[in-house]
Design brief:
With 316 residues, this protein is of the alpha/beta class. The chain is globular. The chain is built from ten helices and 13 strands. The protein is 35% helix and 22% strand. The chain has one domain: Ribokinase (UDP-N-acetylmuramoyl-L-alanine:D-glutamate ligase), CATH 3.40.1190.
Length: 316
């Protein structure tokens, strides 16, 4: 049975370098679309869930392109607002042979950062089964912070499962202390928290996965899944002991951007479909591994058929 899921974030025009080198030296780029929460929406829609994506774009070519892409991916665009006063955000990304690519963002005062709380006050949150939030959108502006907390609070009131990926972007915060406070404040309102191991160390001060999980399991959070890179993931819940789930071997990493979003797709979809926690985390690891092999932020996210073949081929 399909579950109704909503995410909210900033969708940006993305230009990926066609050649390896510093961005200022690259002559040609391939246009695509970026945005952590949009990546999750795309992945969930490709797994045939009923997905809504909320954002605001400018009344410009990039904004119109983003709306078309959202609809082409069979994601509901009811909450994709257009604002003629502000431009759509833009991101430029390096092409690299290994490691994390350098990314340049042009998003200050973008249309998405000007989303208003009143745009969502009439939304019937009781119709949604899952709400997915990210620390990126939380960080963008006072307006996006207010909307993020509103989604979490209304979702909780109406019985939705709220999943949260901290997705740390230190450059978006005035200080690390401010980032830690705000991320943990929103995490405390969510049912499922999905930090990476390095993020967990920053956010909690602990170094071991079990300690990080226990930090979040003291409040409303019911499940914590910690990404461990090539080692897989660690999962612990209020009613389940901590468990390590092995990852998938990737022979060639093309681009690391979007892998964490792919992991979130696996966790949200697995929970939505009632999979066991182990199989849910296996799915998260699998989609993250698949996305590592794609140069785009979301084009490599798999259909259900591709995902099942990948997992079967690994013997898991």
């Amino acid at each position: 049975m399909k579950k109704k899921i909503i995410t909210i974030g900033e969708a940006m025009g993305l230009f990926v370098a066609d050649e390896i080198g510093q961005l200022e030296d690259v002559k040609k780029f391939t246009r695509s679309i970026a945005g952590a929460e949009l990546n999750v929406s795309v992945g969930l829609a490709r797994l045939e869930h009923d997905v809504y994506y909320a954002t605001q774009v400018g009344d410009d070519p990039l904004g119109r392109s983003i709306k078309k892409y959202i609809e082409q991916e069979k994601i509901h665009s009811d909450f994709v607002f257009k604002n003629a006063q502000y431009l759509t955000g833009l991101q430029i990304k390096e092409k690299v042979a290994t490691g994390d690519p350098h990314v340049a963002n042009f998003r200050k005062n973008s249309a998405a950062t000007k989303l208003k709380l009143e745009m969502f006050e009439s939304v019937n949150f009781s119709t949604f089964d899952f709400i997915h939030l990210s620390g990126v959108f939380l960080a963008l502006s006072p307006e996006t912070k207010a909307v993020s907390h509103f989604f979490a609070e209304e979702g909780r009131k109406n019985g939705a499962c709220i999943t949260f990926d901290p997705n740390l972007r230190p450059h978006l915060w005035k200080s690390e202390e401010d980032m830690v406070h705000n991320i943990n404040e929103l995490a405390a309102k969510c049912d499922v928290v999905l930090p990476g191991i390095s993020e967990g160390k920053i956010l909690t001060g602990y170094t071991e996965p079990e300690e990080i999980a226990d930090f979040y399991l003291t409040g409303n959070t019911k499940l914590v899944v910690i990404k461990l890179g090539e080692k897989g993931a660690f999962v612990k819940g209020n009613d389940m002991p901590g468990t390590y789930i092995k990852g998938f071997k990737v022979d060639r990493i093309v681009d690391t951007v979007g892998a964490g979003d792919g992991f979130a797709v696996g966790i949200v979809s697995g929970l939505a479909e009632g999979l066991s926690i182990e199989n849910t985390v296996i799915r998260g690891n699998a989609i993250g591994a698949i996305q590592l092999q794609s140069p785009s932020d979301n084009e490599g996210l798999p259909t259900r058929e591709v995902l099942e073949k990948f997992i079967q081929a690994s013997g898991k």
